[in-house]
Each structure stands twice: as structure tokens, then as C-alpha cells.
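User: Okay, second chain of the day. Same drill as before: sequence in, C-alpha cells out.
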Amino acid sequence: MPAHVQTVSTAAPESANAIAAVRQQAMLALVPPPRLALSDWIEQELRLPQDVSALPGRVRLWPYQREIADAISEPTIERVTLVKPVRVGFTTLLTGALASFVANEPSPILALLPTEADARDYAVSDLEPIFAATPALKGLLSAEADETGRNTLLSRRFAGGSLKIVAAKSPRNLRRHNVRILLIDEADAMEPGPEGSPVALAERRTLSFGNRKIIMGSTPIFEETSNVLRAYAQSDQRVFEVPCPECGSFTEIQWSHIEWEPDRPDTAAFRCPHCEELIQERHKPAMVEAGEWRATAPHVQGHAGFRLNALVSVLPNASWTKIAAEFLTAKRDPDTLQVWTNTLLAQGWREAAQELDEAELAARAEPFGLPDAIPEEVLIITTGVDVQHDRLELVYLGHGRSETFALANSVIWGSPDEDTTWQELDDALKTVWKHPNGGVMRVDAAAVDAGDGETMDAVMSFCRPRFGRRVVAIKGVSGNRPAIVASKSKGSRLFIVGVDGLKSQLTNRLSRGRTIRFSENLEARFYEELASERLVIRYVRGAPVRQWERIPGRRAEGLDAMVYGLAVRNLVGVNLDRRAAEIQSDRMPPPIPTVIRSRWLHH
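Assistant: Same drill. C-alpha cells below.
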């Protein structure tokens, strides 16, 4: 055989092998990397910058966080629900999940938060810093507009997907979006609007995807209307249990298991319900490290639910001793007790009473009141004014460090259209009273109801020149709102009062303790008006909503005026220690001018 023929025959197998090797390498390059559990990916890749975390750098998940993260990345689980307290790092976990989807499973993603301010704060304070600090995420979410000009702070496009950060209070933002991944944070702060529940509206945006993922987390607020508690009840209802170092039995640590010596919260410890041994806090880190999640409704498939309280957090500010000390302070007032119950125990709040007993309230009357018997504890006086078509109803409230005193109620007869009516109110708000400690007091702030469209102009005209005396026009609005905030309308000095929340606080304080006290000078009708409404649960477009409704045949002027007086207390920012020192003096305060003149006129 010729030499050149032999050369070709020996080279051919080598060439074929080389081609096969190249093909094999090319095929291997197309094989996706092995799927990492979300907990592993977060710990390997995610970095926290110093301005986001007290422990910047690589993330280390707590034991109770790992199974939550892995449930989010588990393909067979469609929904994940977390009933959470504060101090357990859910927001970081949520951001880690979002980052993993952007980096590893690009998809249309929607993050739903209660308000526009929450959405912007999350994008600026959490999302962007973490993406900038994490090498594996750098450049994936750019706030800079692309060639189509589509990117904004709350709307980003990236290779293979998109991210929308939407406020629940703007349901129109939920239209026209089809998403595979839905992340919902603080669901209990989202109330139904004109189009129904924003949570339900957001969930409908995922119907096009068979592999959708819905992740909801929230601190519960009210038990009867909680979005997150309702979702958890439909899940496999997992609880985090830790072993007792004495007997080894697993238990979900609950508040009933924490004990301390009388008046010594620094001795707080865990009483094991199985062996009844008292376990000191120094054992908690090891107990939590060995803890496990247990599904109490294992027959439910595809929906992982987790319930957690702050008693298992190993952060220093969540120690048993610190939580016990906070409880001793919080229990003095139902308002602070609700916050403690919601945020640390992750339990929904149940009202002590759905309506009040007027006779029981009247029986509490005590020998104090205006004009001559102000209690020594009173440091601030506010007035609520309810405007009717033929009169003004006034309630005077005294505020101490922890108690509120209903000092007096009165009526100014006259039409709001008459100047004499408002002059009489002005005189009433400038009244000076003698304090038992030697000094004098007058009204520190007053709220005048401008909610009636027919009387609003008269109320605004009266309050505008007296704004420097904290005499403000208010409008009561229902729903989940702050106690009092300035209206955003330009040129308006109207304040918006969240009446539902204040009525709930008032009812809780009257039902659970004696932090609101009544003068014996109050008229009998005041108590009937104070108990004129009751709390009911109504379904609005399929979602339960707490509503206050009038008991038929009753008037509510006293209740409304008292709510306004409570609201306007938030506008008085005086230092109570300084005020207590001031009222020791018998000096008369300077007279209040009827009209406040601009300094500009003297130049």
C-alpha cells in the first residue's frame, strides 16, 4: 500500500476522536448546573452590605430559616406562607429568594408591598444594596433605562424576565401583568379596596403559569381578618420545635412556657412542658440549632406553611429576659400589648369586647373634672369638637403619662353659619384652669370635625388662623390608617384621622383595664354615646373586613368627639418632664392672641 494511503488511514481515527471529544464538551456545556437548594445558594452567594445588616458580609441562615428557604425553591411546592414576628430576618430571606430567581430562574416576578413608600424603601434600602454587594448579582438589575426606556425604580427588565414592585393600595398597578413568581410582604397591612382584596388580585396574575410560586409573609394584626393566618390555616401548618436539654422532648416554645421570679424579668427561663425542668437561656442557641419543623397538617400538599415567634430568635434583643421585660411594660396599656402580641408572638389580636356597656362605664365615674378638680396626673389637655347643624359638641380630655381622663363634655348651641357660635368656641378653647400642683393649664390642641361637606368651609375658616395654637380641622376616615396625618392636598391644613384604629384602641383600653378614667361631671348621655357603636366583621368582595357600625337608635357625638381628642394628642410633642415642672409654677401663661400676625408686616 502506498505510504500516503497509510498516513490517511492512521490519522482518521485520531480526527474522529477529537471531533467526538469536542462534541462531548459542547454537550456538557449545555447541561444546566445542578439545582442548589435556596438555603445553600443564599449562604454561598448572597452578601449583605453594612448599611443593610448589623452583620455585613456572607449570609449565614438560622436553622429555622433553612427549611423555609428550601420550601421556596422546592418545585413541588406552589405556595409558601410564613406567620412571622419581627427579629427573624424574613425580609432578607425574601430578597434572597427574589435574587435567586433573577440569577437562576429568570421569570416575570411581582413583589407586592402595602404602600408606595414601602415599595420604594424596599427597592432603595434592601434590593439595590444587596444586588450591588453580591458578585453573582452585580448588573443583573440595573435602574438605568434600557434602549426602550422601560426601566424605572420599581419596574426592571432583565435577561429572561422582569421585576415589578407594586403597592397594594394601587390595585390598578396589578392589571396587565402576568407573573410566575409572586412575593407578598406584610399581607395583613393590605385591606380590600374598590376592586377587592389586593392579595387576591395579585394571585390572579399568576394563573397563566403552571409552575407558579406564591410566597406570602406577614406579622398578623387582627385575628378575624388576618390574610396570613387565613392562608396558614390552608397550609400544612408547620411549627418549629426544639429539644429540651434535659429530657430531649421536642416542643414549640410558647409564651405560656416562659417563667420568671416576681418583678424580675431578668430571671426568665423556659419551663419544659414534658419534664417540667426550668431551662436557662444559655441553652437556647443549642436548642434552636437542633430544632426541627413539624407539619401539623401533613395531608396538605403543595402549600408549606410556617409559624414562628420571636422566642426562638437568638438575637440579643430577642432574649427571653428582654421579651419578658417588654411584656411587663406593654401589658399596662392594651395598645402596646397588641403591638407586643403581634410583633413578638406573631399572634393575631382579638378584641376584648365587640361593644361597650354604658352602665358599666358610668359606674367608673370619679370625683374629678373641670373646672376646679383637675387630677394631679394630667399634663396635657386636648379637645375634640364634633360639628352638628345646630350645635358644637365638645369633649375635654386630660392626658397623663399612661392614663387618659375624660374631664368634661359640653355643648355650644348655635348654627355653624353664625360667627357667634365660633366666637364662643374660641373663648372655650382659651379657658385657663388651675392645676392642683400650683400652675395653670389650657387646651394644648383641639380637633374640629370638618367631615361634613356643608360645614367644612366654616370649620376651615375658623381653624386656619388658629393653627399656631394647634386648633386643627380634621376629617375622620375609616380603614387601616394612622391616628392622624396631614392631608396631602395642596393649600389645605386639613388633618386625616384614622377613626377605626382609634375606636379599636379606645374599646380595648376600656375593656381590658382602667387607663381611661371618667369625671363624675360627665352627662349621662355621654356614656350612651360612647357605647353607640359596635365592631362587626363584614365581607367586602369576599374578604373579611372589620367595621364599626352604629347601634340603631343611638347618637355618637360623644364617641366622635372623644376619638378626635385622642387623635390630636399626637400633635402635642411637649416634653412631659418639662411640662410637669412648668405646672409647679403659679405664673399665668401669656394671653393667646385672637389673630396671629405675620412678622413680615413689621418690616
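Residues 1-9, 594-603 have pLDDT under 50 and may be disordered.

User: Thanks, on to the next one.
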